Predict the 3D structure of the following.
Amino acid sequence: MLLIYCPYCEEERSELEFRHGGDAHIARPTNMADITDEEFQEFFFLRDNPKGLIFERWRHIHGCGRFFNAARDTVSDKFVMSYKAGEPKPDLSGNAPATEKTVETYEATEGTAK
Amino acid sequence: MADQALRKAPLAGRHGGSAGARVTPAGPATRLSLRAGTDALGALSAAFGLTLPTRPKTSASANGRHALWLGPDEWLLIDENGADLMAAAASSGVLHSATDVSHRNTAVLVSGPQAAGAIASACPLDLGNAIFPVGAAARTVLGKIEIVLLRTGEDDYRVECWRSFSPYTFGLLAEGAEDVGL
Ligand SMILES: [Zn+2]
């Protein structure tokens, strides 16, 4: 079972209590009525979908109910850290990104076992 | 024809469990879903007669009344004596949001040396003594539903669930109690 650290409950809780909330740090334009369709598309629909480190909103919906942000590696599914909503995006450039080598597949671990 | 409507408890007459963990429906209680800011906590605590807890996973209890921390500005209040919690909240005179959820919820009591095991059969929360001591409380999940769990004693737990989910709650806990009793 995946454990996720909730910054409001101050402990790791089961993934069953959480819900994913999309990308974090997406700033809503303050001049919404003035922006072009392309700019709206960029803000509303287009996401980077990176392989590796991503910053996401999560909600501890079956716990304290709070939204918070988390940095997660999309390759290893490891939660690097989580922090309260409203706090600045942390600089994690020093973290070595996960690579495909870190993924344990059946083929990689058992495939050639005799 | 009866000239008076009878209130029927959702789990009336049910019993279950094992020698290790008894599972019984809790009696009727009044309940409040409370939201309030930090500056209102003093007056609200005075109005309820117990200190609203501000630390995660904690609760306060006095004379059959319980205040459970659910979130940074959210509490569940339970009064087993049926006191008027709405009136108590209103008497505080400070800004807050209170909703009477007395009949939205019902509760199942799980007691016995293997009570924690019976609950853990369907609940992912760590129920170890160090991390979930007597008085600890948390909103979490039980199987497919959301519950609020309160540890009322060394071997005693109160499982609050929504009324329409109570047969599921009771069945799952009774099954868990039988399994740990084997
Ligand atoms: Zn939480």
